[in-house]
Every structure is written in C-alpha cells, then in structure tokens.
Automatic annotation (TrEMBL):
Gene3D superfamilies listed in its UniProt record: STAS domain
Domain STAS: 3-97
GO molecular function: anti-sigma factor antagonist activity
Domain of life the protein comes from: Bacteria
Protein name (record): Anti-sigma factor antagonist
Length: 159
C-alpha cells in the first residue's frame, strides 16, 4: 500500500499518522507539515503514530529524527512515537531513536478529526536536498549510522 500521511491537531497537540509504505516521495509533504506545525504559536506536543505503517525509508526516519531534535531544542521534551510493528520497532532502535523519542510499543488514541495531508510534490533538487539533510541527521545519531549512510551521501552530493 502506498504511504499516506494523516494528521490532526487540537489546542496545539498534534498527532501525525503514517500509513502504508512511507517513502521519500512524501518527504516534501512531511517536511512542510512539520514547518507548519512549528509555526503554530500554540504548539504543545506531537505524537507520531506508526501503527499502520508497513515500511519507512531512511529519508522519512531522518525527517522524524530532525523533528525530535527540533522539539527537544525548542520545547525541551521528547515527542512520542507509537508503533505496534516489531520490525519497525527494531528499525527505530537500530537508528538510535530511543535517545530522541519516547518510544511506545502500543497503539495511540485515534483523534476524531484526523485527515490525510494533501501530498506536496517537490522539485528534484528540493527532494535531493531533503534526502541529504535527512541522512546527515541520521549520521549524527551514531557511528553505525555514519558508516551506514556515508556512501549514499557521497553519491548524492556528486550527482
């Protein structure tokens, strides 16, 4: 199933639900939604719900890591990720997400007003910049991630 991003907010509390196979084709949509969320002067919290996600690529993981770092820096707390899928839970931990997020291996409450975010298509250069930035964030989390993504970054920066 193709990936989709759904979101809801109420009084500055945001829930972002990723469903299906979430790939870099959604990176502009995700990044723009995060920017909109941070522009909300009433922002108080964010939960990421991955219970209906079938797969998440490294670009999406990098964007989530960027989200957590910004929330910690600007608001002083860790956002929560809810994930029911053991494979995704292992992936999150292998990337070092337990240091960035409050990882909860359970489903989260479903807000009534959750809706799909319209997909935003970025230019090829814009998407490439987001992919590079996302992987640089992941590389900053651990030496394992540095080794994992070093060659990809070199290839993207050459191309």
């Amino acid at each position: 199933m193709d990936g989709r991003i759904l979101a809801a907010s109420h009084d500055g509390a945001y829930v972002i639900r990723m469903t299906g196979d979430v790939r870099l084709t959604l990176c502009t949509t995700i990044d723009e939604y995060f920017q909109k969320m941070f522009a909300d002067p009433g922002f108080t919290s964010v939960w990421v719900d991955l219970c209906e996600a079938e797969g998440i690529d490294s670009t999406t993981l990098g964007l989530l890591a960027k989200l957590a770092i910004k929330v910690q820096d600007k608001y002083g707390f860790q956002p929560a990720i809810f994930s029911c899928e053991p494979g995704i839970n292992r992936l999150l931990k292998s990337m070092g997400f337990q240091r960035l997020f409050d990882l909860r291996e359970e489903s989260c409450a479903s807000p009534e007003n959750i809706h799909e975010i319209p997909q935003v298509t970025g230019s090829e250069d814009s998407v490439k910049d987001k992919v590079i930035e996302a992987h640089r964030v992941l590389m900053g989390l651990s030496e394992e991630n540095q080794a994992r993504f070093k060659d990809l970054i070199v290839a993207l920066e050459r191309g």
